[in-house]
Amino acid sequence: MPKKIRILSLDGGGIRGIISCVILKFIEEQLQVLDNPEAKIGDYFDLIAGTSTGGILASIILLPDEKGKAKFSVQEALDLYAEKGDTIFDVSFWRKIINPFGLFNEKISETNLEKQIKEVFGNIEIKDFIKPSLITSYDIEMRHAKFFTSHDAKTSQLENFYARDVCRATSAAPTYFEPAKIKSLYNQEFTLIDGGVYANNPALCAYAEARKIPFQDILNDENKKNYPTINDMIIVSVGTGTVLKAYHFEDFENAGKLKWITPLIDILLSSNVETVDYHLQKMYETLGPTNYQNYHRLMPSLKNASPDMDNTTKKNIQELIQAGLTFVEDNKDQLIIIANKLIKNK
To answer: For residue 21, which of 222, 317, 333 has the smallest C-alpha distance?
Structure first.
């Protein structure tokens, strides 16, 4: 009997990725209760996509253990965020003095980010990921989107990269980190920035990528379809919290370029997330009464947490965790349904 292609898509959002971890942790716990006490969420999806912090989380989930299964549980990924977030996003006192608000160069040193990523990923290549991936970035020299796809990396060194470099590239958010200058394993050089500039919600990119993947061949599973249509897909798209900061006419009447920088980035990121969700909702609404329910957008409220992507105070990390837990409590039934679908289509 044909089984659905299970797609996980993870939004960008800096330290707010903690919320995604909390939601995925609950789903993983249901998989452990309903299917296998040792279940890890990476083994229950056929394609995992991510942007920025979501790209890092996707890479963690896709890391292999010695048996080629998922190495890390979501709890371990959450621990990495909570423990390493403050060092990744730390801005020294002197840097604040000479570079207020990131106006003169990037707001955060990339040194800590690169150090922490290297500790986690070492020399793992994306061709070794346990499942197909789509991790977003943008090439500022060639001026086009750059997708890191592990299934393509398996057949071409041109598309193969160190996982640590992929994570550095997808999270190189303008005004936060410098662009990433990385090389493929074929030695081709790229200058890349955060994929959030065009796909902060990468779910539609994941759908398009899935359409061209021969899953049956790649996964060696006769119950999966090659080149699936939307009828053949379950998409679980996880956000990092709704940002509802209002901007008023009076604040921007006659505003110059400098005043528009931060609000414009905020608006572009949020509008991209909402537009992708709108398109996918409409696409699934064209399907029959069963399949149209196979698109799940999980987007929590931030509650008392800061919308800032680099607020790594202990208080804010706790607020992010609480925002995730509140969403889980309010949407427990839907999350259990998702877990059951993942098991059914294993």
So the answer is: 317
CA dist., res. 50 & res. 8, Å (int): 8
Residue 219 has which token pair?
């996964």
* Cβ atoms of 168 and 114 closer than 8 Å: yes
Query: Which residues, 6+ apart, have CB-to-CB distance to 14 below 8 Å?
Result: 52, 53, 89, 173, 176, 240, 308, 309, 310
Q: Which residues pair with 234 in a beta bridge?
A: 6
**If pLDDT is split at 50, 70 and 90, which confidence band does 98 have?**
very low
* 112, pLDDT greater than 80: no
User: For residue 264, what are the CA distances in angstroms to 33, 108, 181, 197?
Assistant: 44, 19, 25, 11
> Burial level of 231, CB count in 10 A (0-12/13-18/19+)?
middle
Q: Quick one: which of 132, 39, 24 has its CA closest to 343?
A: 39
Count the neighbouring beta carbons within 10 Å of the beta carbon of residue 8: 30
Q: What is the dihedral of CA 130, 134, 138, 139, to 10 degrees?
A: 60
* End-to-end Cα spacing for the chain: 12
Smallest Cα–Cα separation from 167: which of 106, 115, 240, 210? 115
The answer, yes or no, to whether residue 3 has pLDDT greater than 70, is yes
pTM of the shown model: 0.90
Residues 6+ apart with CB under 8 A from 158: 184, 186, 188
Residues 340, 341, 342, 345, Cα dihedral to 10°: 120
52 closest CA partner among 224, 176, 155, 153:
176
Residue 253 confidence class, pLDDT cut points 50, 70, 90 = confident
